[in-house]
Design goal:
By secondary structure, the protein is α/β, with parallel strands linked by helices. A hairpin with a 2-residue loop joins strand 2 (13-16) and strand 3.
Amino acid sequence: MTNLRLYFLGLPRFERDGQTVDLTSAKAIALLAYLALNRAAQPRDRLLALLWSESAEEAARKNLRNTLWAIRKALGENVIEADNNRVALSPLVWHDVRVFEQIANQPIDEGVDPMLDVYRGAFLDGLTLTEAPDFELWMASERERLSLLYMQLITRLVETRRREGNWQAVITLARRALAQDGLHEAMHRALIEAHARAGDRAEALRQYDLLRTTLNQELGVDPLPETENLRAAIVGGELSPTAPTVPSFARSDKRPAILGDAPRAPFIGRQAQIEALNEELAIVKTQHARIVLITGELGMGKSRLWREWAAALPEEILVLATRCLESTQNLPFAPLKELFSSRACGQRLFSVNTPLSRIWLAEMARLFPEIKVTFPDLPVPATLPPEEERHRVLEAFAQSLMALKADPLILFLDDLHWADRATLDWCDYLIHRLRDQPILLVTAYRPHEAHTTLVHLVASWMREGIARRVPLERLTTDEAYSLLESLVGKTDHAERVSTLSAGNPYYLIELSRTEAEQVPATLVDLVTARLDRLPESARQVLQAAAVLEPDFDFPTLTKVSGRSEDEMLDALDALLSADVLTERVGEYTFVHPLVATIVRNGMSNARAAVLNRRAAAAREAEYANQLPMVAGRLATHYEIAGDPIKAADYADQAAAHAISLAAPAEAEGFLRQALRLDPQPVRQIKLGRLLTLVGNFAAASEVFTDALMGYEKTKDQLGMIDAMLSLAELYIPAGRIDEIEGWVAKAQPLLNATEDPLSFARAHFLLGVAGVSNGRPLHEAETHLLEANRLTREYGLVGLASRSSFELGNLMAERGDLPQAVQAYRNAIKLAHDSGELLQEILGYNNAAYHTMLMGEVDEARTLIEMGLHLAESASLRVPLQFIYSTYGEIALAQQQWDEAENWFRRGLAEVERTGNKRQLANYYANLGLAARGHGDLDMALLLFEQAYHHLGDTSAPHLHIQIDLWLTELHLERGEYVAAYEALKRAEAQLVGSDRHRLEAWAKRLHEQIDKLAA
């Protein structure tokens, strides 16, 4: 056997006789890894279920054979040992996992430290197979096992080298461990002690400061007492040159406080709610995702309940938390940006040793452009339809959470009533996408402030039985008395304060700070009165803070407030002492969002304008290279500052950024904001196109019409053409041919006057599409599509080139000129590939495959459709599956494989029912009718053809209408129903008159001759 070396730790890499081998197939790499770690020969059926569970059995077996062939071609014939039933990796093949496991399990000796280099990173780093969920679960489990083994080995080595006094080795090993887990405090202690004992006291203290900052930033806690004692010993010069001071480097069992310092008020009651959370966590541990909805009015202690419960959880449970804010509820994914920006997520997911594949890193870089600093050569995300864009972005967030390898994972979203639409969509996507994963999604919100989307989501979750409400009721009288006594001791005013608070904990706490004779009637008045007692300088700084919410640092707050540094320090001391603001690692935030709202609402218009203008300038300077990330905030700042032009420009940028994040609802909001501030027809065109993409055709028509009127007022001819052709494009999905042709006709005089190539190409394309759909002679449509093709080539109109070539292929196919149709589709594939239009490229492969099959070239058809499916699966695209599955089934029909065909059609039917495509729905029922006819079930075939007719309705699809009538003709003839056969044929022939559909005309002619013979 040649010298093979397989590297699975870190990025997969393979060597043959010292030369790197190019093996890029994800399935091939996955199969190799599975065989390497499972040394016994594996049954083929197990491998099929693991890697090709979504494929039909015959296709799956073919895929396995092809994958084994690819492995042998790359690595040599002897790398795989296989018979008809089982497959194994040759035991003679070297791979790094086996070597690493041997190192990890052997006694510690001098030679082990350098051998750690065999662990280059996470197992199969960057590999993802979303279409093989069972493999991904196995891979995640192995990653976690090997990562834990690595940390255990380093821990043993550190303890050994520490006992030996080999401090340089301890430093090296501890740094390796911290690269794997930056929050491992025991390893930080080892590093601190090693530097101190090596004589580098300054570096030891610097390392302590780094640890303290990290813990505060990530967990909001201080270092453990043993770490503080170690620092004190270093500062006091008490460290002996040899005596160790840290007995163990295992993690402490004590979980640090979660989400900030412990609240000053005691936690009273809520035991039933704590128990409910515990019960839901127990369900999650059985591999079922669950949602807990903590509900209650303002001040009922929803966030406090979460903190108390989370703080008591075992340390091995990964807990992540984020919040929604009133000031950011129009920004797409604002809470998720905060969540994944935390060090706990960022360090694990976006560092050099990331467990995320490049495709998902590229998607995450839309929201976190700083990822590109570490990974500058990430691929540019493909241009996709809105629904596919949305799916990809939501999937990227889900993949990121799965990459954390937590079992279980608890995720908390506070104040969900302020969540943006995109974040709510993601919550729903997450809980269904990872329904069999140990994930507990805990949310807190005020039901009376929840908008319609959240209300509908909650109702849906409750109907599905995946969510549980945990309502917070008001405190009982005894609980209120107990809380008040713990805050201020015995008081004569206890009954009055308890009555006024009505059992609301936050109101009661605020009342406890107020003199009895000064008690306002409402909670808002109460908080306002407390803020009024602050020094004037502190109130001014607080106003600046409210404008900058959610968080802000000292320099930014100083710029916006306009105060000196000394005044700022005094003001911040007052605000922190008054428990209005809280500080975390150099940044400040409000203790309760209500305070920020009250402060903003209480500002004069003049004061608000000044502060927002300063805030805008500060943010522009801070984010000079990333303005789209904060464009939504800048639009708000400049609107309040009284600068509508700048505000509208930033709203445009914010809309474009939201579209890039597949957040159309937020994008629409920003575009409407821009239109309100600075109405311009070009903005109406942008809004109309967005509404068209999301399927809101009525609203799009209204907006395009307004844009047309605006352009007419300014006599902007190109703008008028754009609006008219945009209105024409609106009617393509509905098949309203007269409207398409009518709007193009209205634009014709302007087209002749301007002679703009792009506008001419669009007009010819629209007339070509209309001509194919309206049942008129195809040569008329061909003239327009050929002209559109000529213009796109001559003027380099990339965006339209692949579409016009694709539609020309459709026309050739309907005419019956299959070779020309396939050539047009192949041309569309190349154009789409070159311009990055992934969906159009996949559709090109699909149509080329179908019409190649009609030409009798079944093997080539399978090759083409497999390419299309591979592209769709690699990019996690669902929309093209409704077409691809149909083509797979039609190829099976051509080979008379009726069961396989029906399986493909059933899978495709599920996809098309999700999208609501009536034409494709009718096509599937017709194909199922053909499969039933192949089985000999003529009654079922007739029923299915009739259902196809029903679903097609008045949809403009003459080609499919004629096909169904011809299939019905054949079926009625088989059933001996000659009158019905003749009626169906007459319908088909009537539509064929003058249509240029030569293949269908020949088919109808053959059937007519057959009926004539029977009649004779």
